[in-house]
Design goal:
Elements (H helix, E strand, L loop, with lengths): L24 E3 L2 E6 L7 H14 L3 E4 L5 E6 L3 H10 L10 E3 L15 H11 L10 E5 L13 E8 L2 E8 L7 E6 L1 H18 L26 E4 L5 E5 L5 E3 H13 L4 E5 L3 E6 L1 H13 L13 E3 L13 H11 L10 E4 L11 E8 L2 E8 L7 E3 L4 H15 L6 H18 L4
Parallel strand pairs: 5-6, 6-7, 15-16, 16-17
Antiparallel strand pairs: 1-2, 2-4, 3-4, 3-12, 7-8, 8-9, 10-11, 11-14, 13-14, 17-18, 18-19
Helix pairs in contact: 1-2, 1-5, 3-4, 8-9
The structure holds iron/sulfur cluster (SF4).
Length: 437
């Protein structure tokens, strides 16, 4: 075995630090290493990663909101061994700057342009740029069935069709809908301008982000194009994709190995971890449908109508030492009991502490564990001012009261997100406090 070891300084515990395979981050259940991929892998390769997670960690894996695999529960001794063992698998590992493309890129007959050549050119060009923020990310989105619109990005290139051919809108900061418009460019200019902006950010220092270059630019008031990755997708050349994922993004190695074994048995040759904590398996229609049925019966999320897919929950207690509540348990109970509230129009954020690892963006409703109980936040981040605070014992009742209020007050054609926004924190607080002494 390669004798690698980590300097203490690489064990990054900073808030906002970004874990990587060779720079794992300390969490409540030990070190967390991220395996970021730039292309599809075989089901057998994911099984092998699961076996490594069991051997070197605590056997729990996450698929992050951005679609990265994370291996949990590593020790200072086992993390470097995992690093060497993962590298020996010869996977398409991402090194350096995160330049992300939609998971169906190059296979999706509905996309405007294949974003992968631009992404690769930016990756190559960015190799010489040092000093960027650890979480700096570039999204190159060619359109199609599964867009990366809901992911935060420092720089985002979005394909548009014009009378003169494809052009790329360069957006800065935020999600696609909250970003600012920098310019509309041809492909070569889109690459060189992105690299120029990255160089500028590197000079500004490791805290500089895309939004810092967006001051004074107009807002991109586009519609939200984000679609759920759960379901079956028809691609080019009679290829299909089956989108599934573990509940709340976290699975035991055994469950993922069983899913990969079944995929192999059905003749599925490739898969990609994708955004929204999903796994996309690629194969013929019958194989994809059979795998979806297997996944559903084994507890995986397979449809956007599954209320669990409308919840973003962090690891929580007992996995994370910072957690004040068992987030996964609370999320499962809420999905069971408040299904009509969770109509897919917003992500209910369930977090063990205000850091809010599972959902950095604001949410229509967030539940945050505190030493005294649970804070409820409307239209904000977990760290924002709550509209109500309740004791642990009152959690389920409080959520039921909110679900009842939305059910009773919902106007024709109004979804839960719009209804929650219209009701506002005062009405929500009154509902939570109703019936109390
Ligand atoms: S948000 Fe959740 S996983 Fe992140 S530190 Fe807090 S309790 Fe732990």
């Amino acid at each position: 075995m390669t004798a690698l070891s980590f300097d203490r300084s690489t064990l990054d515990m900073r808030r906002g630090a970004c874990p990587a395979l060779s720079a794992p981050m300390m969490t409540g259940d030990g070190l967390l290493a991220r395996v970021a991929l730039t292309d599809a892998i075989a089901p057998a390769q994911l099984s092998e990663l699961c076996r490594l997670a069991r051997r070197h960690g605590n056997g729990i894996l996450d698929i992050s909101a951005r679609g990265n695999l994370q291996i949990r529960g590593l020790s200072e001794a086992s993390a470097p061994v995992l690093d060497a063992d993962v590298r020996a698998l010869n996977l398409p590992l991402r090194e350096g700057l995160a330049v992300e493309t939609p998971p169906l890129a190059g296979m999706d007959k509905t996309e405007i342009a294949d974003p992968r050549p631009i992404a690769e050119a930016i990756r190559q060009g960015a190799r010489e740029i040092v000093g960027l923020a650890p979480k700096m990310s570039v999204v190159v989105d060619g359109g199609g069935q599964l867009r990366l619109s809901a992911l935060l990005a420092d720089i985002r290139l979005v394909a548009i069709s014009t009378g003169e051919g494809t052009r790329w809108t360069l957006l800065l900061g935020g999600t696609e809908t909250t970003s600012r418009i920098f310019n509309v460019l041809r492909e070569t200019d889109a690459i060189s301008t992105t690299l120029e902006l990255l160089r500028k950010l590197a000079v500004m220092g490791t805290r500089a982000r895309g939004r810092d270059l967006a001051v004074g630019l107009s807002k991109n008031d586009g519609v939200n194009h984000a679609a759920s990755p759960f379901g079956t997708f028809h691609l080019s050349n009679n290829l299909f994709a089956a989108g599934t994922g573990p509940a709340f993004g976290q699975a035991g190695a055994e469950d993922l190995i069983a899913l990969c074994d079944e995929a192999e048995r059905l003749g599925i040759q490739s898969l990609k971890p994708a955004f929204d904590h999903s796994l996309l398996f690629f194969g013929p229609q019958t194989a994809c449908e059979a795998l979806t049925a297997f996944a559903r019966s084994n507890g995986f999320v397979t449809s956007p109508s599954d209320a669990r897919s409308a919840i973003a929950a962090c690891s929580g207690s007992p996995a994370c030492n910072s957690a004040a509540i068992a987030t996964q348990e609370l999320a499962a109970k809420t999905a069971e009991e408040c299904g009509d509230l969770l109509d897919g129009s917003f992500k209910l954020h369930v977090t063990g502490c205000p850091k809010g690892c599972a959902h950095p963006q604001p949410s229509a409703l967030a539940l945050c564990g505190t030493a005294a109980g649970l804070s409820l936040i409307a239209q904000g981040k977990a760290s924002d001012e709550p509209f109500a605070s309740v004791a642990f014992a009152d959690t389920n009742n409080s959520l039921r009261r909110i679900a009842d209020l939305v059910r009773n007050e919902r106007q024709a054609g109004e979804n839960s997100a719009a209804c929650l926004a219209r009701l506002g924190p005062r009405r929500l607080a009154a509902a939570v406090m109703s019936g109390r002494p």
